[in-house]
Structures are given as C-alpha cells and as structure tokens.
Amino acid sequence: MIEIAGTQFALNDPVILIVGGVVALILLLLFLSLRAANRSARMAEPLSRQMAHLGQHVQQLGQGQEQLRGGLQHVSDTQANAQLQVIQTVESRLSSVQQQMNDRLADNAMKSARALAEMQERMKESLHGSSKQTATSLTQLQERLAAIDKAQDNITKLSGDVLSLQDILSNKQTRGAFGEIQLNDIVSKALPSDSFKLQATLSNGRRADCLIHLPNPPGPIVIDSKFPLEAYEALIGSTNDTELKAAVQMFRTTVRKHINDISEKYILDGETADGALMFLPSEAVYAELHAKFPELVQESFTKRVWIVSPTTCMATLNTMRAILKDARMREQAGAIRKELGLLHKDVDRLGDRVSNLDRHFGQAAKDISEIKISAEKAGRRAQRLDNFDFEEIAPDDTPGVVPLARHEI
C-alpha cells in the first residue's frame, strides 16, 4: 500500500501503475535529455572553438585588408609622385634642350648672316676695285691709242731719222742687242714682272726673246725682236731702178723667210698661243712695210705672225695686261664661287642637322606620350587595386578556401 496525501493506493492499482509509468518515463526522458545535453555540450565545444578561431581569422583578414588598402594608397601616392617627378624632369630637360638648340640655331644663323654679309662686302669691294681698275685700264688704253694715232702722224717725220738708225744698227750684234733691250724696256713697263720671261727656252730647243704667260686661251705668246734690217738698208740705199728692184725683191724674200721662221719656231701646238709677235725696233720700218708691202702683212696674218712696232707693241702689251687682270679677276671669282659652294654645303648640312633635331624632338614627344599612357595605365591599375574584391578573384574550386559572404566579412 502506498499513502499519498492521506490516500492509500494499492501497488497493483492501475492508477498507481500509470502514474509510476509516467514518472519513470519522465525520469527516463530527463535522463536522456541530460545525456543529450551533455553530448551536445561536448560536441558544441569544438564548434565554439572553431567559431572563435574563425572570428580571429576574420578579424585578422579585416586588419590585413585595412593594411592592404593603406599600402595600396601609399603605392598609388608614391607612383603618382614619381610620375609627376618624371614628367617634370622630362619637361625640364626638354625645355633645356629646346632652349640650347634655339640658342645654337640663333648663333649659327647669326654666324651665317655675318659670314654672308662679310662675303658680300668683300665681293662688292673686289668687284668695285676690279671695275675701277678696268675703267682705269680702258682709259689708259684710250690714251695710248690716241698716242698711237699721234705717232702715226709723225711717221713721216721719223723717216728722216733712218740714216742715224742705220748708223746705230750697222752691226748685226749691236742691232740684235738694241732690239732686245728696246723690247725688254717696253715689256717691263707694260706688264708685271711675273707675267713674262726673257730668253725663254721652248720644248723644241728654240730660245724666244720674250715669252708672255697669257692664260688659255690664247696661251703663252712669243715676241721675236731679231728683224733682218740689211734688206731694209739696201732698200733705202738704192740709187736706181735696178738696185731698187733688187732691194725690193731681197726685202720681200727676207721678211717672208723671217715670218716663216717665227711661225715654225715659236708657234707650238699645245705649248704656245696660236700666234706670235714680230717686233720691229723702228717705226719707219713698220710704216714702210705696211705702206709698200701689204702682201707681206697679209701673209703674216695667214701665218699668224703679228707685226708690231714699239708704239703698237706697247698698245698690244697693255691689252694683254688687261687680259691678265681679267684672268686674275676670274680666278678671284672662282675662289668666291668656291666659297659660296662651301657656304651652300654648310647651309645644306645645317638643314640636315635641323631635320635630325626635329626628328629627335618628334621621338621625344612620342616617348612622353608613351610615358603618359604608361602612367595612365599604372593609375588605372592602382585604382583597381584600391577597389579590390577578394570574392571576385578567389576561384570557387580552390582547395582549402571557403568563399565568405560579404556580410560575413
């Protein structure tokens, strides 16, 4: 019997059995719950440790992200400063190089302008001096031609001096020396000392009384002073027609032979001019020859032997002097043209160097453009790194990496 609250119940009472079963069931359930709770506590302990460890990792990941953001910001600032410094340095150097090139170009332009001005001034002075000298020479030539005309008027008067000339030139050696001395005196007065040579030996072994060095054309020209005066003396001294006829024939033959000798001895192809001068030491002989023997004068023209007297020789030499001056002027003009050619080459070379400089400036501008493009790319990369998203770059199939939601991070 069991007494509960003053009421007795039998042990075999169904109510007691039901209550006991319920109590036992409750106790069993309580025991099972306690056991399950103990088991759950034991199982939750590693999970809590994992959650704590995961929280620490998440905290470290957040700190790393903050450090990475600060590092990326520092890298971006450093790169921007470096880019700015590079651009400033390049611009400074380009400005310096451009200034130096501008200074050099200005200096070269000034030097070229000064050189051109000096050359033009020298050319003006040279041309002015040459034109002045040419005018002076022409004036002198006109004066001497007037003197020649006046001398032609006095030929008749000079004919009276033939006897005295015969006395002086009675000896052949004396006559030859007199002609050479007279020719030497005329040539020395008319020409510069370096433009002629007395007793010059030619390639054929013949010795010329005077060789004048004229430029080609016509080239060096020979003057011969050994005129055969015996025939002229016989011509003047004839007293009757027979003697006069014989003297005329002898004079014509002798003069023709002398012309032929001069043509053969002193006109050398490629060495001398295409002609030679036959000097007559007397105006009377010159007048007699032109007055009474025109065929001999014409024959001398055919043989390219020009007959001159002291007066006409002086006029001819002055003409040669003008030719020499003109040749020297041409030489100076050739030197000026050479200098102008060199100056033209310098200007072309300056143009080439300016083109090279322009090409270098173009290359520098291209390099700066490429540097700017690289800087822009680096800036964009820094901006992408600054907005970095780990979820986007971490692949899902990477072993040991568990993708985390943005709200979990």
TrEMBL record:
Does the record's keyword annotation contain Coiled coil?
yes
One Pfam match, given by its short name, reads RmuC
Per UniProt, the keywords (alphabetical) are: Coiled coil, DNA recombination, Membrane, Transmembrane, Transmembrane helix
Membrane spanning stretches: 15-34
Matches recorded under InterPro entries: DNA_recombination_RmuC
Tell me the GO BP annotations in alphabetical order. DNA recombination
Transmembrane helix: present as a keyword of the record?
A: yes
Q: What does this protein do?
A: Involved in DNA recombination.
Q: Which PANTHER family match?
A: DNA RECOMBINATION PROTEIN RMUC
Q: Which family does it belong to?
A: Belongs to the RmuC family.
What is the protein name given in its UniProt record?
Answer: DNA recombination protein RmuC homolog
